[in-house]
């Protein structure tokens, strides 16, 4: 078997070292996340430090729900805001590095209300400038640099609504930039049944995708809406907040939230690229992600990262060992060769012919 010389060893270790580094850059690091499945404050001691309830939003007595609107006559609205800001743009490299995924389970009772909306907006010192009694509880005086995913239960011709049962993406205005009829997948937004939505934004493809299903069902492979948008260009390096908001539209409609999960992740900027045609549909090899599996996926990601780091440390240690000590042992070991003398003796063999057959003719 051929033995590697010193230069070949260096090349092999350098290649292995580079491979491990590349492997680590492929890991998406979760930098902020939460999962609310129970709003009982005794089970969520950090609730007040991480979230704020505005307007008519309140936790029910049993702690199972947050009612964003109340069962009362007159217009009311409410919001839950995640108070930890983030940025879509890396201020050092000026490259988009943030992607996010969120899923939440909600219930909307019958009525002529607005429904519910997931809102992304720049951080403001006064949240009263953001939320009020406008569409979905968003203030009419809000800075138009906001994005909302609306689950609309009322057809309003003033904002060119598709119908009273649609999902829309709103960019700076509640005249939706893209919409999809929820009836096409056999669901009713204000039927009083719990529904679950998944909203994903990928910084690499610059697409915002929205999915919807009955609560407890798997995440659909096909999105209701896949919309091309570059959120890093919209806000630059400004701090961004997210919220879920609702307004009853002066009706008896009640919008409730029974769970909310949110995950921000960042990937090495070298892996990001702008699609040749941002309007072209992108193919995602995406596995269904369920709310119940979030904890498992976080643990798995941590284990993978730890394994990669351990392997990297081992290769670094091996590299330095070869540099410091291996160069003195690059000659193959040879077994000692000793001469030996062998003695040969002549052996005489006598054959007994007494039992041989007698020739009768002799």
Offer a few descriptive terms.
362 residues, Jelly Rolls, eight-stranded antiparallel beta sheet, seven-stranded antiparallel beta sheet, 15 strands, 17% helix, globular, disordered C terminus
Question: What are the segments in which pLDDT stays under 50 over at least 5 consecutive residues?
Answer: 17-30, 269-295, 329-335, 358-362
Residue share in helix? 10-25%
Pattern of helices and strands: HEHEEEEEEEEEEEEHEEH
**How many structural units, i.e. domains?**
1
Number of helices: 4
User: What's the pLDDT, averaged over the residues?
Assistant: 77
CATH topology group: Jelly Rolls
Structure in words:
The protein is of the alpha+beta class. It has one domain (29-304): Jelly Rolls. Helices cover 17% and strands 28% of the residues. The protein contains four helices and 15 strands. It has helices spanning 6-25, 47-50, 231-235, 294-324, and strands at residues 29-36, 51-55, 58-59, 66-67, 77-86, 98-108, 115-122, 147-152, 166-171, 178-181, 195-202, 207-214, 225-228, 240-247, 255-266. It is globular and about 70 Å long.
């Amino acid at each position: 078997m051929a033995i590697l010389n010193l230069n070949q060893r260096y090349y092999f270790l350098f290649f292995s070292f580079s491979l491990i580094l590349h492997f680590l850059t492929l890991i998406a690091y979760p930098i902020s996340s939460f999962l609310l499945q129970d709003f009982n404050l005794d089970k969520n001691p950090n609730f007040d430090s991480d979230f704020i309830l505005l307007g008519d939003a309140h936790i029910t007595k049993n702690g199972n729900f947050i009612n964003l609107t109340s069962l009362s006559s007159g217009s009311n609205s409410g919001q839950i805001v995640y108070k930890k800001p983030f940025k879509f743009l890396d201020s050092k490299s000026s490259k988009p590095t943030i992607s996010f995924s969120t899923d939440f389970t909600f219930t909307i009772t019958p009525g002529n209300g607005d429904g519910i909306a997931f809102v992304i907006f720049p951080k403001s010192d006064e949240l009263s400038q953001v939320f009020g009694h406008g569409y979905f509880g968003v203030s009419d005086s809000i800075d138009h640099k906001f994005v909302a995913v609306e689950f609309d239960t009322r057809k309003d011709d003033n904002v060119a609504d598709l119908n009273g049962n649609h999902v829309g993406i709103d960019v700076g205005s509640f005249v939706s930039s893209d919409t999809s009829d929820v009836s096409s997948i056999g669901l009713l937004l204000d039927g009083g049944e719990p529904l679950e939505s998944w909203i994903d934004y990928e910084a690499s493809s610059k697409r915002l995708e929205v999915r919807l299903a009955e609560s407890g069902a798997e995440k659909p492979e096909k999105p209701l809406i896949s919309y091309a948008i570059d959120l890093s260009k919209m806000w630059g390096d400004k701090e961004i907040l997210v919220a879920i908001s609702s307004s009853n539209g002066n009706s008896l409609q009640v919008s409730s939230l029974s769970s909310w999960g949110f995950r921000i992740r960042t990937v090495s900027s070298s892996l990001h690229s702008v699609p040749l045609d941002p309007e072209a549909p992108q193919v995602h090899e995406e596995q269904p992600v369920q709310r119940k599996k979030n904890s498992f996926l976080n643990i798995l990601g941590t284990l993978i990262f730890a394994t990669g780091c351990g392997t990297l440390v081992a290769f670094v240690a091996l590299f330095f060992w070869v540099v410091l000590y291996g160069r003195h042992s690059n000659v193959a070991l040879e077994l000692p060769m000793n001469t030996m003398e062998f003695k040969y003796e002549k052996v005489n063999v006598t054959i007994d012919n007494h039992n041989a057959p007698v020739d009768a003719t002799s």
